[in-house]
Design brief:
- By secondary structure, the chain is of the alpha+beta class.
- Helix content is 14%, strand content 29%.
- The chain has 2 domains: 30-63, no CATH class; 81-316, Thrombin, subunit H, CATH 2.40.10.10.
- The chain has helices at residues 2-24, 219-230, 299-308; strands at 33-35, 40-43, 60-64, 81-86, 89-98, 101-104, 118-121, 136-145, 159-163, 189-194, 210-217, 240-244, 259-265, 268-279, 289-294.
- It has a 6-stranded antiparallel barrel.
- Keywords: Disulfide bond, Signal.
- This is Peptidase S1 domain-containing protein.
C-alpha cells in the first residue's frame, strides 16, 4: 500500500512539473526557433493540448530556413543600405551617403516625383515588424537627376534624393563613404546588398535583404562578354563598370540603385562604394557580367550638388564596418 501511494505521489509530482513546464518553460528551444511562418521548414510538435504561445503573434515555433545564410545579410550588417517605396510597394534600392541624402540610379525614379517616393533606412526583412532593429522612414524633398542620363545605354545613370529630414545615425543606420574622383578599384570581389529578385524568373522581390559577393570584371573584358549577347558593335558607356558573370550569383530586378561596395583592404572591415546597380542581361548568366554606374566618375558631380543644396562635404563621413548581429 505504501509503495502504491509513493508511486502515485511520484507520478503526480512529475505531472505537476510537466504542467508547470508547459506553462512556464521555454516552449521553443533548439533545434526549433520562433520564426515567421513563411520561413518554417517544419513546425515544432509541442503537443495536442498545448496552449502555450512561446512566440510572438506573427511567428510560430518551428525548424526554420536559415535566413542568415551565405546568400542573405544579417540584421544591421550593411547599415547604409536603403529601400525605396512608391505607393507602399518596394521598387528599388539606394545608399545613404549623408544623413539626408540618398544615392541611387536615375532610371528607377524616371517617372516618379518627390511625392511618389518613401525612403527607408535600417530595414532587413520587408515582411516582418519584429526585427532586432527598427527601420525608419523619410520622405523626399528634392530629386536631382544627372542631366545627361541616357536610358538606352545606362550612361550617367545616377540621381540624388534629398530628404525632408535627416536620419539619425546609429548602429544600424550609417553612411557609406564614397571614393575620390577617378579612383580605380582593384579588388577582386565586391558586394551588393538589396531586396531584388533571387533569380530572373522569381515571381517577387526578396523579403530578407540579400548579400551578393561578385567578382569585379575589367571594362574591356566586360564589353567583349556583353557583345556575345548584345551584338559585335555594342559599346560600354564610359561611366559604367562591371561585376559578376557567375552562374546564379548576381544582382537582379529590384536591386537597381543599390550600392556595389568594396572592402578597403584584406584585413579592413570597412567599405567604399564603387558602383550603383544599373542594368544587366537577365540575371545570373555565366560569363554575362552586370553593369554598374561608376561612383568614382561622378564624385565631383555629387559634391557640387551637395554644396548647392547646403549639405556639408562628405570628407568626414564615417567609414563604418558592418555590425553583425545574431
Amino acid at each position: 500500500m505504501f509503495l502504491l501511494k509513493w508511486t502515485l505521489l511520484r507520478h503526480w509530482a512529475i505531472g505537476v512539473f510537466l504542467l508547470s513546464c508547459i506553462i512556464h518553460c521555454d516552449a521553443c528551444s533548439s533545434p526549433y526557433h520562433c520564426a515567421a511562418n513563411r520561413l518554417c521548414l517544419k513546425v515544432a510538435k509541442i503537443g495536442k493540448n498545448d496552449l502555450r504561445t512561446p512566440c510572438k503573434a506573427n511567428e510560430i515555433c518551428c525548424e526554420y530556413s536559415n535566413i542568415t545564410n551565405e546568400r542573405n545579410s544579417r540584421p544591421g550588417q550593411f547599415p547604409w543600405t536603403i529601400a525605396l517605396f512608391s505607393d507602399g510597394k518596394f521598387f528599388g534600392g539606394g545608399s545613404l551617403i549623408a544623413p539626408r541624402v540618398v544615392l541611387t540610379v536615375a532610371h528607377s525614379i524616371r517617372l516618379k516625383s518627390e511625392a511618389n517616393i518613401m525612403v527607408r533606412a535600417g530595414e532587413w526583412d520587408l515582411a516582418s515588424a519584429s526585427e532586432p532593429f527598427s527601420h525608419e522612414d523619410r520622405y523626399v524633398a528634392k530629386i536631382v537627376r544627372h542631366k545627361e542620363f541616357v536610358q538606352s545605354t545606362g550612361a550617367n545613370d545616377i540621381a540624388l534624393l534629398y530628404l525632408t529630414s535627416p536620419f539619425e545615425l546609429k548602429d544600424h543606420i550609417q553612411t557609406i563613404c564614397l571614393p575620390h574622383q577617378g579612383k580605380v578599384f582593384l579588388q577582386d570581389r565586391c558586394l551588393v546588398a538589396g531586396w531584388g529578385k533571387q533569380s530572373f524568373e522569381a515571381p517577387q522581390f526578396s523579403q530578407v535583404q540579400k548579400k551578393i559577393d561578385l567578382p569585379m570584371v575589367d571594362r574591356g573584358q566586360c564589353q567583349n562578354l556583353l557583345r556575345t549577347r548584345l551584338g559585335p558593335t555594342f559599346e560600354l558607356a564610359s561611366s559604367l563598370i562591371c561585376a559578376g558573370g557567375e552562374k546564379d550569383n548576381d544582382a537582379c530586378t529590384g536591386d537597381g540603385g543599390s550600392a556595389l561596395f568594396c572592402p578597403l583592404g584584406v584585413h579592413d572591415n570597412r567599405y567604399l562604394q564603387a558602383g550603383i546597380v544599373n542594368w544587366g542581361v537577365e540575371c545570373g548568366k555565366e560569363n554575362v557580367p552586370a553593369v554598374f554606374t561608376s561612383v568614382a566618375i561622378f564624385r565631383d558631380w555629387i559634391d557640387q550638388s551637395l554644396a548647392v543644396n547646403s549639405v556639408e562635404p562628405l570628407t568626414n563621413c564615417a567609414l563604418v564596418g558592418p555590425r553583425i548581429v545574431g
